[in-house]
Amino acid sequence: QVQLEQSGGGLVRAGGSLRxxxxxxxxxxxAYAWGWFRGAPGKEGELxxxxxxxxxxxxxxxxxxxxxxxxxxxxxxxxxLQMNSVKPEDSNVYYCxxxxxxxxxxxxxxxxxxxxxxx
Length: 119
Fold this sequence. Notes:
By secondary structure, the protein is mainly beta. The protein has strands spanning 3-8, 10-13, 18-25, 33-38, 46-51, 58-60, 68-73, 78-83, 92-99, 108-109, 113-118. 0% of the residues lie in helices and 51% in strands.
């Protein structure tokens, strides 16, 4: 059974930094992509950042580009989202997700973690 476990999050002041992470277990994927969403899991959420299996391809929403960095450690089955220069509008529930075939379809989701940015 595939499981995604998120950690990190919490309260941070505007202009500060925060890192959230997510580890996947119970899978047999050969090469998978990671994504970070906020607002809601699934299509209703906003894709904030994504990273390919190799790490060579990344995507960032315009709203976070230059401030957030997505990275992964394949040996640890873990993805990270480093959030710098955070703004109050970054406050939201963040979800990690796995695209098991790098097709653009995220099939597995974390439980969500709250990030609150105080002004």
